[in-house]
Structures are given as structure tokens and as C-alpha cells.
Write a structure and sequence with these properties.
The complex is a heterodimer. By secondary structure, chain A is of the alpha+beta class. Chain A has 16 helices and 17 strands. The relative contact order of chain A is 0.09.
């Protein structure tokens, strides 16, 4: 029997904090699409003799995030210099945190591969500054320092994830929390959220002895999909190496999106030596328990708490509650629709996670965002706010179905039309003559005609093959263009077939 | 504390300093002497002294998150040896660690 290898995965996420100014100076942090080197000053250009001063809002956002991730918040933390040379790092060092970060020992919960809640440990979350941007052109590089000094929160997990899917779900959950807190845009394509993966494989025997395999880092991951795909690729690559009797090298790999494979970036021999030391220009941060308490009091309802409330107050299944709270926009939309509807919230949940999400997937595909499986940049329904209809419009449609004006299947068609045109449900039903036909005598004629035209099927039914009833239902629906009241049709069919 | 020539060459590389063999030997002796002095300092009993990251009495110096004007692009690039379209222009770095 071939040996089985178990992935051990950890992740580092860099999230730009949404401040007005940079981490250590008053330059605007809004560098996106600004002309090069227009948001710079002597501090972020690394000129001699300047002094950095800590942005209070960035510290508060870091503490908010730490609290939301169940971290211990350090009463005393210290900034440190991480020394290395690169043209986009004007000082020759990055101000970061090393031994005494602001947040440590936290966790967040994902759905594990076994379907059960699983805690992913957060080893630390610390504050640092972003670098500038390099543009590589023929034979030289162009440097824009607008981004240099933008506040960056680095969040490091324990190696608690066991598959590409778990890593993906961690990232989605983290992004939802960051967005709910309003500390980060979650936009990976714009680089506002960046991710590095470390991954090793081990056998069950190694795991039992508490040993790990050789760790490989994966960088250059610019999308949620790249994270998932690169991990799957590396697991397959390393498994093949081990199965062939080889050894995995301790290296840094980059993800090549075009070739859809990882490529060697750096070997261990050339790994960096950062020579961290405490930043002499910045006094340590001392946060009082009262201040931390005040920050804690400003935390919004977080996704897990909201999901728990959806289960308790609205009677949703944990699964539906999880789906509906994965994106704040979806959860808000759902709650507004529940209010407007007034009926059972589960009904609203079913309409959103079923027909509405199907429509959103279709729209995403039409925009060329890949097939359903690949539609990984967004969590399900994440673009719900872009719909031309609002929660109250969905509620009105469900009421029409409840009242028997249209049947459920027609209702789905009406919803598609609503999204396509932005018109309300009642107007579409009216204009297209979609109202459900419940008139018994009219439907009886159709039922009789269908039975008369299919004596063979009638005989099968009477011989005991009662599943033919569904086929007859379908025929009647076709004849009435889907408008027949299914309850009435079913009753009429039974009367005639069983009578 | 005896530093090797290789130690000094490694440190020089990290600091991106190009040293002549004579300089390497000179710094090797000087840095070794400095480390020797730390050996002397290590004799002090510090078991009752908590480690510190700073000698300043200051704590928690922060500023409000407000945007202030910085430098013009012209001033920012004034000392740059080379520039192009508002960027600093530097030798190619792609492919290097």
C-alpha cells in the first residue's frame, strides 16, 4: 500500500490597514492610482535625521483585529528594524515588530474538511510598514515610494490547516472578519491583502512522533484562487517527490499563474539574515487595560456571532447561517429581506442561497470570471449589492408565491427577470401573464387531455408504477407553460388515476 | 571573540559594502576587539535587571491619523542619481534576492 502523506499548512497574511495617513508620517496612504512619488516626505523617503511617529489609528485597528481574532493584546510592545536591501525600501530596513508583537495566541474558526468547526491558531499579529513598488522595465527598475510606509498588519497562523480547501476557507474567513471590522478592503488583486503559504508533508508515523516534514514556502499569491491552486499543486509535487523516494528541499517557491505551477524562487542557502533589533527611534507602546477595553467595546458583531444569532433567532441551519454570514453584504441583505417579508426567515434563506445565488453565479460567469468552481475571488453572493433589485423586492416575490399568485418554479423565472430588468415581481407577473392557474375546470380539461393522449402511461400507473405521476405533472405543466397550480394538478390527476 | 575573515565578508555583504582584503582584515581585528569588550560587559551580574528595548523614559508616543502635505515629486527626486517619469530609476533588481 502506498504511503499516505498529510499536509501541514500555515499562512502569513499581510493586510493594509485602512488609515488616512501612513504608519509613521502624515503622507496620504491612498496610493492607488496616484502619480508616482506624490505621497512622499522625508520620513517615508528614508532621509537622514527624520523621526517616525506612530499612527494611533493603525494601532487601534491592529488591536481591534487582535481582539476579533481572540488574541492576547500585549500591554507592552516594541517596534524592531528588519534589515535588508532592496530599492523599494528606502531606509535599508523595514520598521516591524519582532519579539514583542501587539497580538499573539489567538484563533479563528473555519469549517474543517470533516464538516465540523475547526480552530485555526493565530500565532501573532503585528504592525509594520509596507514597501514601495518596483516596476521592472528593460534593463532597469522604476521605483514609486507612494506605498512605502503604508500601515501593514501581518497575521501569522499556526500550521493548523490540512488541505488547500481549509487554507482557502481560513483566508475567506479572515477577510470577512477584516472587512466586518472595517480595517482592510480584502482586495487581493490590488495587493491590499497578500498571502504567503508554508507547507510540509508528513506520514502518520511522523505525526505520531510529533515530527514535521521539510517546509516549503509559496509566495507571489495574488488571488484566493492562486492560494488554493498553488497549495494543491505543491501537495501533488511533494507527494510525487516523496513517493519516488526523493527528498523535499527547503526552498521558497513562487506561483506562476500563467503556467499554473510553482517555480523555484530561492534556496535555503541564500535565505535572508534580517538582523532584527529594537527600533531606537520609536519608544515602546504601553497600552492600558482600560484603553484596550474601550477598543473592545467598539467591536461590531462578528461573523460567527452573527451566524449563531441567525440559527437561534431565525431557525436557520448552521450551514445556511454560515453561508449567509460569509459576506457581510449578504448577511445585511438577508436580514433586510426577512424584515420586509415578515414570514418564516428560512423561506428567505432558501430563496437567497438557492435561486438568487444561482443567478449571481450566472452573472459572474457572464462577466468572464471563470466557471463556478473557479469563481474563487468572491465568496458566494459577495456581489449581492450589485443587483438591480433590493431585499424588499425579493420579499415581495416570496409573498406572491405564498399567496399562490405564482407557483415556486415560475417564481424562480420571475426572479431571473427581476434581476435582468430591475422591475418588481408583480409587474413582471402582470406583463407576462405568469399568474398561476388554479381554476379547476380549466385545469381539468388539460389533465383529461394529457391522460387521453397517453393511455400507455395511464396503464403503467394503474399497474402500480405510481412514479409516472410525476411525469404526468410535467406534461400538464408544459401544456400550461408552468403556470398551473401544482397542488390542484396533483389532486386532479390522483382523482382520475386512482378513482 | 575571534571573528573569521568569512564572518566579516558575510557582514559586509549584508551591509552591501565592498571591502578590500586589507579592509576586511582591519575590520576583522576591530570588530573582534569590540566583541571582546562585550565579553567583559557580560561579567556584570544582570540577573535582577529586566531586559529593555530602550533607554528613553518615553512610552506610547503617537500621532493622530491626519494627512499632511509632504514633498513635491520634484523635491523628492532632487537627490536621485537617475529618474524617469517621476520614478526613481535604479539598476535592474529583478532576479536578484
Amino acid at each position: 500500500m502506498p504511503q499516505r502523506y498529510y499536509p501541514v499548512i500555515g499562512m502569513e497574511v499581510h493586510a493594509q490597514l485602512q488609515t488616512a495617513s501612513k504608519m509613521f508620517c502624515g503622507c496620504s496612504a491612498d496610493y492607488w492610482e496616484a502619480p508616482p512619488n506624490t505621497h512622499v516626505c522625508p520620513v517615508c523617503l528614508g532621509m537622514p535625521g527624520v523621526l517616525p511617529v506612530i499612527n494611533a489609528h493603525a494601532v487601534e485597528q491592529t488591536v481591534r483585529t487582535g481582539l476579533a481574532l481572540n488574541c492576547r493584546i500585549a500591554r507592552f510592545s516594541v517596534f524592531a528594524r528588519k534589515n535588508y536591501h532592496y530599492p523599494d525600501l528606502p531606509k535599508g530596513y523595514q520598521i516591524s515588530q519582532y519579539e514583542l508583537p501587539l497580538c499573539r495566541d489567538g484563533w479563528l474558526t473555519i469549517v474543517g474538511d470533516d464538516g465540523q468547526p475547526k480552530r485555526i491558531g493565530i500565532r501573532r499579529a503585528h504592525l509594520e510598514e509596507d514597501t514601495g513598488k518596483s516596476l521592472h522595465v528593460d534593463g532597469h527598475s522604476l521605483i514609486d515610494l507612494n506605498r512605502a510606509g503604508v500601515p501593514l498588519l501581518e497575521i501569522v497562523t499556526e500550521a493548523d490547516m490540512a488541505s488547500a480547501e481549509e487554507a482557502y476557507r481560513y483566508l475567506v474567513k479572515l477577510r470577512t472578519i477584516l472587512r466586518t471590522l472595517g480595517v482592510n478592503s480584502g482586495d487581493m488583486e490590488k495587493g491590499a491583502m497578500r498571502c504567503e503559504v508554508n507547507l510540509s508533508l508528513r506520514t502518520a508515523e511522523q505525526a505520531a512522533r510529533g515530527e514535521y516534514g521539510v517546509k516549503v514556502e509559496i509566495k507571489n499569491l495574488n488571488s484566493f484562487k492562486a492560494v488554493r491552486d498553488s497549495i494543491a499543486y505543491e501537495i501533488a509535487r511533494q507527494t510525487a517527490v516523496l513517493e519516488a523516494g526523493g527528498r523535499v528541499e527547503q526552498v521558497t517557491m513562487g506561483w506562476d499563474e500563467n503556467r499554473r505551477r510553482t517555480v523555484l524562487q530561492r534556496t535555503k542557502e541564500s535565505s535572508e539574515d534580517y538582523r532584527y533589533f529594537p527600533e531606537p527611534d520609536l519608544p515602546p507602546l504601553e497600552l492600558s487595560p482600560e484603553w484596550i477595553q474601550r477598543v473592545a467595546a467598539t467591536l461590531p458583531e462578528l461573523p460567527d456571532a452573527r451566524a449563531a444569532r441567525f440559527t437561534a433567532d431565525y431557525g436557520l441551519t448552521p450551514r445556511d447561517a454560515g453561508i449567509l454570514t460569509a459576506e457581510r453584504a449578504v448577511a445585511d441583505w438577508f436580514e433586510q429581506a426577512v424584515q420586509a417579508y415578515g414570514g418564516p426567515p428560512r423561506e428567505v434563506a432558501n430563496w437567497i442561497t438557492g435561486p438568487l445565488f444561482a443567478i449571481l453565479r450566472g452573472r459572474a460567469e457572464a462577466r468572464g470570471e471563470g466557471d463556478e468552481e473557479d469563481q474563487a475571488e468572491r465568496t458566494e453572493g459577495g456581489d449581492i449589492a450589485s443587483l438591480p433589485i433590493g431585499p424588499a423586492d425579493l420579499a415581495a416575490l416570496i409573498k406572491l408565491v405564498d399567496a399562490g399568485v405564482v407557483n415556486r418554479n415560475t417564481g424562480k423565472r420571475v426572479l431571473e427577470e427581476m434581476v435582468a430588468t430591475g422591475r418588481p415581481a408583480a409587474a413582471i407577473v402582470e406583463a407576462q401573464g405568469l399568474a398561476q392557474v388554479s381554476d379547476e375546470s380549466g385545469l381539468a380539461q388539460v389533465v383529461d387531455a394529457v391522460l387521453a393522449a397517453n393511455p400507455g402511461e395511464v396503464a403503467k400507473y394503474r399497474a402500480g408504477k405510481t412514479s409516472v405521476l410525476g411525469w404526468f405533472m410535467g406534461q400538464v405543466m408544459r401544456e400550461t407553460r408552468g403556470k398551473a397550480n401544482p397542488d390542484v394538478v396533483r389532486r386532479l390527476l390522483s382523482q382520475r388515476l386512482d378513482g | 571573540m575571534h571573528l573569521s575573515t568569512a564572518d566579516v565578508e558575510h557582514i559586509a555583504h549584508l551591509a552591501r559594502l565592498a571591502l578590500t582584503p586589507e579592509e576586511v582584515e582591519q575590520y576583522r581585528r576591530q570588530l573582534s576587539a569590540i566583541l571582546d569588550y562585550f565579553e567583559t560587559l557580560k561579567q556584570v551580574d544582570t540577573s535582577a535587571v529586566p531586559p529593555t528595548a530602550t533607554v528613553l523614559p518615553l512610552r506610547t508616543v503617537m500621532r493622530q491619523d491626519a494627512v499632511r502635505p509632504g514633498l513635491s515629486t520634484e523635491d523628492a527626486l532632487a537627490n536621485a542619481p537617475d529618474r524617469e517619469d517621476g520614478y526613481f530609476r535604479v539598476p535592474a533588481v529583478f532576479g536578484e534576492d
